[in-house]
Amino acid sequence: MIVINKEVSATKVNEGFERKVLATGGSMMSAEMHIKKGVSGPYHTHPHEQISYVVSGIIEAKIEDKIMVLKSGDSYYAAPNVPHGATALEDSVMLEIFSPQREDFL
């Protein structure tokens, strides 16, 4: 599968938060998140493994009880069913990889 980013429509998650589903296949998928300054991805859990990579901007990530400020080039891993979330401290773009695929995103 080849995905041309500019040909993918974004889905509004909530005000100031958009998601683009990129390459998917097998048991993996990728998604690009665009988050405006001050907007939070809700603190949540899901049965998927997740790696999140900060493409641009600065986010405050919370995984269980640990809070870290992450900048462009930083990443985190959230194991299945581990509570996590993020808040954009400035306009940010994140690349997220999930396994298995997030059926709720498709």
Description:
By secondary structure, this protein is mostly beta strands. The protein has a domain at 32-101: Jelly Rolls, CATH 2.60.120. It contains no helices and 10 strands. The protein has strands at 11-14, 17-25, 28-35, 40-44, 49-56, 58-63, 66-71, 75-78, 84-88, 92-99. The chain has a 6-stranded antiparallel sheet, with no helix packed on it. The protein has a 4-stranded antiparallel sheet with strand order 4-9-6-7, with no helix packed on it. The chain starts with 10 loop residues before the first strand and ends in a 7-residue tail after the last strand. The model has no long low-confidence stretch (mean pLDDT 96).
Largest β sheet strand count, sense and barrel closure: 6 strands, antiparallel
Strand content: over 45%
| Residue runs with pLDDT of under 50 for 5 or more positions | none
Q: For this structure, what is the CATH homologous superfamily of the domain at 32-101?
A: Jelly Rolls
Helix content: under 10%
Number of strands: 10
